[in-house]
Amino acid sequence: MRVGLERIEKRMPFELLGFDSDNGSEFLDTVLEEYLLEREKAVKWTRSRAYKKNDQAHVEQKNFTHVRQLLGYGRIAELEVRDLVTDLYENTWLPLLNHFGPVMKLVEKTREGSKVHKKYDSPATPCDRLLKCPKVSLEQQRKLRETRAQLDLIELSEKLEEKLSKIFSKMAKLVEERAEEEGRLEEGQTGGATETTGCVTASVATAPCAYTAPVVSERLVKSKGKKKRKSLDGCHE
Hints:
The protein is about 45% helix and about 10% strand. The chain has 8 helices and 4 strands, in the order αβαβαααββααα.
């Protein structure tokens, strides 16, 4: 977590003044405490209430838009794919979202009886919002404009598809290799003692695979058709 936070802080166009986390053990440890609180200008560290997941609602929603929507719901545990995923985010996905992905921010929310009325601002990319922020220095604004001028939307989109295809192909290959290895282990266990050496093949525990193949989006949509009810006489209504 500390290495990842350092990498994020280096590319931020503003100074890190506050850090808010949940109560997971990956955050509440001495390594992260030293990094945040024992610097020359300590960072204000707050955390959410225990068992109150909605305290991090604005962060948790990014699990879908920034992760699940891109890589699916399967957990990628293979270390061989880590560098591919890191390159995908650092050089393709994040530049695409930050410079070309407009979002709307909630400005006002009012309630009239049982109805809730929400008012949003005009859609803008995260880069545009930073350029309009008065607290961002002119030097940082200049760097942001230069970075955006070097990016091409079509080129980023094509690279995104190429890298995703490479990741999924690598994952499918690893799953296939693991299945073949497990098959050989099962054959060795059922064989028992060998005739040549008189030894018994030892069973080797393999790491579990949490990968699931990407699901077609149409399958995730529930059917809107009404189910036919069966009448008492066996006929459909």
